[in-house]
What does this fold into?
Amino acid sequence: MAKLVDYSLRDFVRETASNSPAPGGGSCAALAGAEAAALARMVISLSLGKKAFLELEQEIQDAFIGKQEILQRLEDRLLYLVDEDTQAFLKLMSAFKLPKSEESEVKRRKTAIAEATITTASVPLATAQAVMEVLELLPLIARYGNRNCLSDIGTAALLADTALGGAHFNVLINLPGIKDEKFVKDARTQVELQKARGNELKDEVLAEVYAGLK
It folds into this structure.
């Protein structure tokens, strides 16, 4: 199977719409997160050299510019997770198809399903973490970025919020099939903490955007 990130936009959308269960919400969430990072990088690029930016304190300029490399790394990470999410799901489906006629086969199938289910929750957890790192960078960019790009950084915040929620859904739907109680507890705690912090960051960015668009 070709990498999803190598598809054209049209082919990716059509593959998502097909009767194949993958790519699904997890891959789309990772893609939305990558787009959020990309938009934020664009705003940085369109801010550098502008008069208003050059009038900022040097410390702020340096902090602002320093976010570009971090966002590039997060964008790459999230694009990688687009395919990882689909591969995790396909691995789980393969585990369910393992033979179960003999006791040894039943045991091997059960182990494979357990391991694959943890992976299907771990990948969107990784997506959520990467998206949170993107969200943490957006308020600074919204505050000091090019005012003509307010709509772009606002869109980045909304995409990141959608990516975070989508990743969380894909974590939560897999937890009932996991027997590792510590993993499940930690995952639920992480989701709740990220939801709260993610909403704070999104609202902070949107407040800046709406204020600037008045």
Remarks:
- The chain has a mean pLDDT of 96.
- The first helix runs from residue 9 to 17.
- Residues 13 and 19 are 12 Å apart (CA to CA).
- The chain has seven helices and no strands.
